[in-house]
């Protein structure tokens, strides 16, 4: 009976540590996603020509897509007991903020999109590709 109690006690002590380990992994991935999103948006906004900026952003996205997709899949595989409630909230708000930043490009460049269907098509593709990170 004491061995069972010792095993149970050990499990109860290790479970929060496992959550902390997953929290650190999630926080690292979210930091990387936030940095990536900021750089992606910057490539579009800082370009003298919005169309060229979208092209550059798409190339940047494509170069990191496989790595980010794998990390997002890893996040989806984590169980609720492995992650603290605080980190779950941070995960949700960070992913939503990233998606909104990229989708915000469509609002920012709506005038360009109306006049240039090719630009609109490229921007729509970039936005859909980015959003697919969260649904794949």
Short description:
The protein is mostly helical. About 90% of the residues lie in helices and about 0% in strands. The chain has helices spanning about 1-45, 50-75, 85-110, 110-115, 115-135.
- Main beta sheet, described? none
Shape: elongated
Extract low-pLDDT stretches. 5-20
Order of helices and strands: HHHHH
What percent of residues are in strands? under 5%
Q: What is the tally of helical segments?
A: 5
Structural classification: mainly alpha
Terminus-to-terminus distance: 47 Å
* Average pLDDT number: 84
Report Rg. 20 Å
Number of strands: 0
Q: What level of helicity do the residues show? A: over 70%
Question: How does this structure look, described?
Answer:
- This protein is mainly α.
- It has helices at residues 2-45, 50-76, 85-108, 110-115, 117-135.
- The model is unreliable at 5-20 (pLDDT under 50).
